[in-house]
Amino acid sequence: MKIKLYFIICAVAAVMVQSCNDGIPEKLEFKQFRNVFFSAAGTVRNVTLASQRDTSFVFGNISYGGTTDYEQGKVVAEILADPSLVEAYNVENQTEYELLPANAFAFDNTQLQIENGRNYSKAAKLFVAPQELVAEKPYMLPVTVNLISAPEGMNLNEDRKTAYWIFTYTFSPPQDQDIEKNKWTIDSHHDTWSVGYEPEKAIDGDPNTPWHTGLGGAYPYWFIIDFHKTLKVSGIIFQNRLPANVDVKNFPLRVKWELSEDKVTWQTILEDNALSNTLDEQQLPCTTVLSGQYLKFSVYEGWIGAPYTYVGEMSIY
């Protein structure tokens, strides 16, 4: 009796095991979850940029789930910055972020592909140029994914398609710098009218002794100051030529200041297409705060169109 019962139990167990095996397919399918999503989406990421050097980040890739069968075919998507999302985010969260400037970032590849046989793409890399940003000011970069092509039945996960990154440039050289203006020299310049009006006169501390350009109208007129050490430049102190009774008041109108560490790579720190013709000293904050050894000043046009111009005095803060 015991032997018969043993064989009955074994037979029932064998049937149950076979039944279970028949119910487990080799490849699982949950089609309702077979959607493409962006790995960078889901949270707001805050990034602090503490260096002036261009910085790269692994930004994210696309993937899909809902199946263990990855022979689905190729999936192609693109990632795009969406400026409209900044305003929508600010309204919803009562913030005041500005869009990360277009010249401050780039992707190594904006088209992501999931090859047949895989369920994820290579990650996109993001490059950010901190020198294009205003220090201590947060910028937002919202990036969203759009499907270009996908297998039938595969859609985009609308809740996992957008990433929000916030960048803040915090690089700040020491504040207790001594500019030692008495050690500044003119490295090079474009043109001078005559002896006694050299560009050195624009940094001698006396606005009554101006730099006067040549008379030929060969704009832009320019000169380069050598600080002889690296200085942080937050703003420009500018003084038009004195006295006020100069015959032709062709003060600089369109101007630009650039900064460099090596005289090879220049970064614009301030550009003004309508510089004031006031005789008062002007303090002009830089749009981009940087550090460097060489400061280049260029004049592209004067106030009344004369073929020459002049500068009384210039410094930095």
TrEMBL record:
Residues 170-317 form the F5/8 type C domain. Gene3D superfamilies: Galactose-binding domain-like, hypothetical protein (bacova_03559). This is F5/8 type C domain-containing protein. It comes from termite gut metagenome.
